[in-house]
Amino acid sequence: MARTNTAARRTGTVVAFALMLLGALTMVLPFLWMVSTSLKESRLVFEFPPQWIPDPIDWANYLEVWDVAPLAVGLLNSVIVTVLVVTVGTFSSTMAAFAFAKLDFPHKRTIFVALLATIMIPLVVLIIPQFLVFVQLGWIDTLLPLIVPGLLGNVTMIFFLRQYMLGLASELLEAAKLDGAGYLRIYWSIFLPLCKPAIAANVIIVFMATWNDYIGPLIFTNSPENSTVQLVIASMSSYYKDQTDYPMIMTASVIAVLPVILLFTVMQRYFVESFAFSGIKG
Amino acid sequence: MPTTALRSRRINRRERAWGLAFVTPIALQVILFSLVPVGIAVFASFTDWNSIRDTRDFVGLDNFAEFLGDKYFWIAAGNTLYMLIPIPFYLLFGILFALGSHRRTPGSTLFRVLFLLPYVSSIVALVVLWKWIFNYQYGLVNQALAAVGIQGPDWLGDPAWIKPTIVIMIIWKMIGITSIYMLAALKNIPDVYYEAARLDGASPVRMFFQITLPLLTPSIFFLTVVGMIGSLQTFVEVQLFTSDGGREYSAATITYYIWQKAFGSGQLGLASAAAFFFALVVLVLTLVQFRLSRRWVYEGE
After folding, report:
1. pLDDT tens per residue across span B201-219
2. Nearest CA in chain B to A252
């Protein structure tokens, strides 16, 4: 009896492994194809059967792509926007989360509910009037619409971190207050360090959302000098539609997804764990 | 005694001041970039605000009558509902992958990272890649189909195939993140349930349907609601795959329709009205989901 059970379990593991491997291949092969195409000479692209490992491997696209499209400008703009939004925004968000979780102040509930309500509004309702606001401010075709709102914080991150901080003992706050520590100090040297894993997870999410954003740049910017990397890739793709210079487009795409994939791979543990302790109850 | 009271009142005042200071940035953001815009949008909905013709007069409910009478609005509405198709598929595959991960199949950690690659990558890069893989003549997919003697369709050009192509991409993108949520839910199921069932001689299949699945329903519900709200707002894929909503408007969604009206032809009033109507429909559908959830979502003892 016990023997058949182990045998059954082993068969189960083999089947599960095979299916998961198949799934993982489905996820990865398109990316490998992207890299493979980027390393090909144009004439090899339409080869049949397709070559997975190009012969010869041609790195030239990675040098030429910078001249073909304003990719360097796009990358620089994306770096500026993302770095500012992620760093400053994280401070704004964690401070707000700290206040909502641990401090007592007037209209706390009202403000919190207002935040909750705004994330329920579909983006399409907000994007048109936001555009009008940015026109009034003279911010259209600058990076400001992509940066300024993000500097002020991120509502999802605030919810998440508030939840996390509620789980930390309030005695920490009381003890520090008795020791005469100011609120900024308590936030900075007690609560911020305790939230590191949760912050790490949220940083990945905000980084991803900002770096990958396409709708914002599409609507609020239009000249090439103010394009982000996503916009550069998109316009390259539509420009090359008829010429089908796939190696060049794939090269640009590899460069565009690399930062996020690297960050994600390094920090994936936090990313995965964050969902475990977010304790979704529906 | 009075001094302590005084001191604690002073502390309270400081706490209130700091609390307000800490939430000021996000409050400013919400006021400037959400509440004020909503106000403008309400106003715009009832005007013929047009950025090209430079009009901004009150027109009552004309905008609502206009888009409700527009054939393309209804085509877009149909396409928007079509975008709900991926949800059951990525839920199913996500649960299966989570189950495999949960029983500690070798390679799980690596697989989990690989499954998330599409999710973390930008939609722009994915669409560009997809356009290449699903290229009618030279794409990997049609070449593979040709190798087994099947003539693959024109995935991106044929009005009958563009929506399925988008659906396949969304399923592919969402399986990884779904499984992460499901895995978290699986880990929260106490082992004692399974131990008790095993003592009663329950089969693994029975345990899945009697224990695992019911306890996953809160997560399934959460992901269905979030997925529905997201899917109904599908836009970027459509905008990138097609330059005009697809042949015969075959891929255009409501959000695409609104975007086109606002930023293509400058009809800000009409677009705002349609956006409000759409938001209301999404809200109603969400409430319906919550209502229906009482019938199938496990709520605990």
Report:
1. 999 899 999 999 999 999 9
2. B125
CA distance B300 to B272: 42
Query: What structural domains and CATH numbers belong to chain B?
Result: 15-65 (no CATH), 71-293 (1.10.3720.10)
Nearest to A16 among B103, B123, B243 (CB): B103
Which pLDDT band, with edges at 50, 70 and 90, does A55 fall under? confident
* Closest residue on chain B to A104 (Cα): B16
What number of C-beta contacts closer than 8 Å exist between A and B?
289
B20/chain A closest Cα distance in angstroms: 6
pTM for the model:
0.92
Contact B125 A238 (CB under 8 A): no
pLDDT in tens, A134-191: 999 999 999 999 999 999 999 999 999 999 999 888 888 888 888 888 899 999 999 9
Residue of chain B with shortest Cα separation from A16? B100
Q: Is A52 in the B-facing interface, judged by CB distances under 8 Å?
A: no
Whether B222 sits inside 8 A of A280 (CB atoms) is: yes
Of the listed ranges A194-198, B65-69, B114-118, B162-166, the one predicted with least confidence: A194-198
pLDDT at A48: 76
Q: Where are the alpha helices (DSSP H) in chain B?
A: 2-30, 36-45, 62-68, 71-82, 86-102, 108-120, 123-133, 140-147, 162-187, 191-199, 204-207, 213-232, 236-241, 254-259, 268-296
